[in-house]
Write a structure and sequence with these properties.
There is one protein chain. With about 110 residues, the chain is of the alpha+beta class. The chain has one domain: 2-Layer Sandwich (Alpha-Beta Plaits), CATH 3.30.70.1060. The protein contains two helices and six strands, in the order βαββββαβ. The chain has helices at about 20-35, 85-100, and strands at about 1-10, 40-45, 55, 60-65, 75-80, 105. Strands 2-5-1-6 form a four-stranded antiparallel β-sheet, with helices on one face. The protein has a two-stranded antiparallel ribbon with strand order 3-4. β3 and β4 (about 60-65) form a beta hairpin. α1 (about 20-35) packs antiparallel against α2 (about 85-100). The protein is globular and about 40 Å long. The two termini are about 15 Å apart. InterPro entries: Dimeric_a/b-barrel. This is Transcription initiation protein.
Length: about 110
């Protein structure tokens, strides 16, 4: 089985204020279903209020991320699934719950993990 990253950038989530409670409820319900199905690895969102730092091999810490990279934000779920089709189905469920399209990526297999 492969691990799939299902995610969206924060800017994609354009939800009217009166629908936020429903989005939270629905998205948490999908995650609970993934847990019950044995597919859940982890999920969460990037804390946009926390400072980004870069850490070098020698331990040097520099404020900020890579200048050439787009900011990393939004929500993420990692699910372990048997097929790409199953990953697409879970991504669609999360898209409905979050009221925004989801990006789907597969992690390359790491035999040491």
């Amino acid at each position: 089985m492969a691990k799939y990253l299902i995610s969206f950038p924060a800017a994609a989530m354009v939800v009217p204020d009166d629908q936020w409670n429903a989005v939270v409820r629905d998205s948490h319900a999908v995650i609970e279903e993934a847990k019950a199905a044995g597919a859940y690895v982890f999920a969460g969102g990037i804390d946009a209020g926390a400072a980004v730092v870069r850490v070098s091999a020698d331990g040097t810490v520099t404020d900020g991320g890579y200048a050439a990279a787009r900011p990393l934000d939004g929500g993420f779920a990692v699910l372990e699934l048997p097929t790409r089709e199953a990953a697409v189905a879970w991504a669609a469920r999360l898209a409905r719950a979050c009221r925004c399209d989801q990006e789907l990526r597969v992690f390359m297999f790491d035999p040491a993990s």
